[in-house]
Amino acid sequence: MMDEADKEAQRAFITGIRGEVSEGEEPEQAATAKPGETGWVVRILDQSGASAGDDDVVEEVKGFLDLAHANAFARAYVRDSVERCRIPGAAERDVLESWFAFGENAEVVDAGEDGWKASTELDDFVSSPATPMERDWRALDPRRLVDEAALEGFSNTAHDDDLADEDDDEAFVTEIIRRKQAES
Fold first, then answer.
1. Model confidence at 40: pLDDT above 60
2. Which residue has the higher pLDDT, 162 or 145?
3. Among 142, 145, 148, 147, which residue's Cα sits nearest to residue 40?
4. Inter-CA distances, 165 with 114, 141, 161, 173, Å
5. Could you give the 3-state DSSP secondary structure of residue 143?
6. In this structure, are strands 104-108 and 57-64 parallel, antiparallel, or unpaired?
7. Can you give the pTM of this predicted structure?
8. CA distances from 146 to 68, 142, 150, 151 (A)
9. 136 to each of 71, 116, 139, 148, 177, how far by Cα in Å?
10. Tens digits of per-residue pLDDT, 69-101?
11. Strand-pair category, 104-108 with 40-46
């Protein structure tokens, strides 16, 4: 059963997703899509200081529709960066030093206190290796999202070919069984 605090948290979450605002409240920018044509932006920062310019910005990833998506991407990106700096048998301190020397950080632009920050989880990242799913920032990358309209008229010939191959495989196995039975 849900207690009153859980129910309130669930209501706040749903309200944030829908963009609903109760009387007397102001909408929170963190819960809804950011105004503008690009949505939320995640800035990738080079920890080594070797990037061009004084700001250490490697790139800005645009197009996140909500803050939760941008935060998840930033977290996974940093998680992957820490793992790329981890070598077998290295102490936690060595992993951390390596990340500060060679890794990349990520921050959500204009998110303020609601944006994910590496400093809040960096010790946990260093102390325990990540699973492949925790590192998969590519699955969260908005540049990989496909618009439904782009899929219209797309024929799934690759899937059809796979089905045909499966039929061929079944026929081959059936033929082998027949030969074995004939030999017996």
1. yes
2. 145
3. 142
4. 50, 33, 6, 12
5. helix
6. unpaired
7. 0.61
8. 19, 9, 7, 8
9. 13, 17, 6, 23, 43
10. 999 999 999 999 999 999 999 999 999 999 999
11. antiparallel
CA distances (Å), origin 168, targets 9, 51, 158, 172, 173: 54, 54, 15, 6, 9
Helix/strand/coil for 82: helix
DSSP string, 116-128: --GGGTHHHHHHS
In whole angstroms, give the CA distance from residue 99 to residue 81: 7
Specify which of 56-65, 113-122, 138-147 reaches the highest per-range mean pLDDT. Answer: 113-122
Task: Give the pLDDT band (50/70/90) at residue 170.
Answer: confident
- Binned at pLDDT 50, 70 and 90, residue 58 comes out as confident
26 has a pLDDT exceeding 50: no
Q: Which of 50, 48, 115 is nearest to 85 (CA)?
A: 48
- Nearest CA among 92, 183, 171 for reference residue 129: 92
Say which residue the tokens 């070919």 belong to. 161
Inter-axis angle of helices 92-102 and 67-85, nearest 10: 110
